[in-house]
Design a protein that fits this description.
about 160 residues, alpha+beta, about 40% strand
């Protein structure tokens, strides 16, 4: 895992097509896979939409089987969501953003690092969406060891 930067940013809301997931956050993969297949079937990849994972609950206080999240694909085409999907707008506003280079097995470690940095600085959490935004993959997207550049975004007051 490599940390590229940490900074405070004012982020714009992101309109997405989303699939909801309930359960351990590590189990959201099949929702992303379904979104990817649907995006391919609808020829959405040429526009280069970003993907994001939105995490609604604190895993330190909510049982893993009850955690709520969204697998999201940026909606650049204004297309109607497919079956089992919905339109979802990721909240904008003031965020603490840590950009990292990780493979999928390092996601949990990366989130621990961003929380640690956030808390060390004494920042105050806000109740908007916290999410990871997948900016680029420098390898085969289907390879779990492929390196991704990801923004980890924590809402702040």
């Amino acid at each position: 895992m490599k940390i590229n930067s940490t900074e405070i940013k004012n982020l714009e809301p992101i309109k997405t097509i989303a699939i909801s997931h309930v359960g351990d956050y590590s189990g959201i993969g099949p929702a992303f896979e379904k979104l990817c297949v649907w995006a391919g079937e609808n020829n959405l990849w040429p526009a280069a939409p970003k993907m994001a994972g939105v995490y609604h609950d604190d895993p330190m206080h909510i049982p893993a089987e009850s955690l709520r999240s969204e697998a999201c694909l940026e909606d650049l085409a204004g297309i109607e969501p497919g079956e089992g999907m919905k339109q979802y707008t990721i909240s904008g506003g003031k965020y603490f953003v840590m950009q990292v280079e990780i493979n999928m097995s390092e996601c949990g470690e990366a989130w621990c690092k961003v929380y640690s940095a956030f808390n060390e600085k004494g920042y105050e959490y806000d109740m908007r969406d916290q999410y990871d935004l997948y900016l680029s993959c420098t390898g085969d997207m289907e390879d779990p060891d492929a390196p991704w550049v990801v923004d980890l975004c924590i809402p702040m007051k």
